Amino acid sequence: MVIEVSFRTRALPALCTAAALLSVSALQSPAAADPDDGKKVLTIALSQSVDSLSPFLAQRLVSTTVHRLVYENLTNYDAADGRTIPGLATGWKSSPSKLIWTYTIRKNSTWSDGKPVTADDVAWTFNTMMKDEKAATANGNFTANFRRVTAPDPTTLVIELKRAQATMTALDIPIVPRHIWEKVGDFGSFNNDKTFPIVGNGPFVITEFKVDGFIRLKPNKTFWRGAPKFDELMLKFYKESDAAVAALRKGEVSFVHGLSPAQAAALRKTEDIEVNDAPGRRFLALAVNPGARSRDGRTFGTGHTALRDPAVRAALFHAIDRRELVDTVYQGHAVEGEGYVPPRFGAYHWRPDARQKRVYAPDVAASLLDGAGYRRNGDGRRLGKDGKPLTFRILCHATDPNETHMGKYLDSVWGKLGIDTRLECLDNVSDPWLKGDYDIAFDGWSVNPDPDFVLSIHTCDALPATPKDTGSTDNFICDREYDELYERQIAEYDPVKRIELVKRMQSRLYDTGLMNVLLYPNAVEAYRTDHIASMTTMPAAAGNLWGQDGYWSWWSAEPAEGHGEGGDGNSATEVVVGIGAFVALAVAVGLVVALRRRATADTRE
């Protein structure tokens, strides 16, 4: 649990010494903006570092959020209700067989370097993903079923399918400029972070980037929907959430997301700060390592073999009181977990019935272990089939205090079953995860209005090709019954029938005990009303601002009257993260630690 700072911070005097105030710009920014330039800057505090600025590779929520600002998809989602609306494509139609889809590409979209966006850019993006497995790392599930993609003329795109595909109006793939990207040699290693400004066609253009530091963006003046109102959008990385909250209070940042209950409660009492608490689009789960393997049949990793026993998995989760986690850890700012798709997406949300549900029942958990032959020794410790006491490693993100709190809870309740745990909280959980070197891990994904992506990452096809490859799998799950349901839902155009298939997939995933949804966290975020006059939530009623299925919040944001006038001493690239020299130095050092894929539970779009 994050402990709220017990005093109100103030803007530090301009004559603070270097020992009292250390900024990231002093360490790594060669070109800080003049503090009195009068620019209206919208500054967002990030709790997650970027994994890649390449749309072909990026999977973290922060990265996919940035890509929505920089590159357009064929279609978008309406901010009010999430329905499909035109994006780069102004219209689309299918053949009677629904195996050929034709899209009309808008004429009034241009790349930020002045060149027109054409259907050829779209065709090249998709064909590259179809031909190069590395280019398909992030979004290959959308193009795996494409037979042929062509651009007969600059405003016409034609996609021919191998079989029916229900996601043809929800292809969440950023379209990139061919004249820039066709020069890339290796899509697996190119991170798109060396040449600026980065050419795109969305509402913003990336002009500067520092690893684990910041991303600077400027408005795209030629964006067809109209340029954003702020002069600059700045995303700053903070390793410690308390430092981000302190920066919000001092006016050094405009917006903070991922607040703890204590932080939100304190900020509600702070002048010029508005707290937004909305139903989230994420789930938080415990992922059980089923035994890491690759598509070529090889196994790897160090996952505990006892967890391949369904009885053990069922016992572990009968011992968890999800309601207690909602009440104590999240203090009511979450909903008890059930199905894989959060309740915010009502049509696809699934709930187990009374017979299927793994209710909180410690006695049932103990009986399952006894019945499966996992007996206690004289010390009360539960023994595995090899006669050794059971000890499970729990992989968690050091940047998320809620996971640490829940890890201690799991140690307590599973300890009563005679099972020991070892909590391994790391800044970088990517390496052990990709290597399969974990037993149980905290896992979380954001879900789109169409849930196909988060369903696809548990198919056999998502496994890495070899142990040395990455793949798009989340947890090395490969279940033939689940795969058969996945193939049926992706080919089902009838929305009622498809919804039923998606629910059956969630039911199957639930029964395996390999992905156990603990809860659905609320989107708890805050912004300064003296910086931001208004912006659009998604959905319009009780919606979130950060991590939307679109670019609506930051594109629509209106600067507050007087914001940016006269300068406030806050350089756009300067990240002030401390009050005293010790705190500032500790955080600044933390900012240069390079993280990879899974930096926080906010993993994916």
UniProtKB/TrEMBL annotation:
Signal peptide (from-to): 1-33
Transmembrane segments: 575-595
GO biological process: peptide transport
Compartmental location: Cell envelope
Domain of life, source organism: Bacteria
Entries under SUPFAM superfamilies matching the protein: Periplasmic binding protein-like II
CDD domains noted in UniProt: PBP2_thermophilic_Hb8_like
Molecular function as annotated in GO: peptide transmembrane transporter activity
A Pfam family recorded for this sequence: SBP_bac_5
GO cellular component, one term: periplasmic space
Domain Solute-binding protein family: 85-456
This protein's UniProt keywords: Membrane, Signal, Transmembrane, Transmembrane helix, Transport
Family: Belongs to the bacterial solute-binding protein 5 family.
Descriptive protein name: Extracellular solute-binding protein
Species, as recorded: Streptomyces clavuligerus
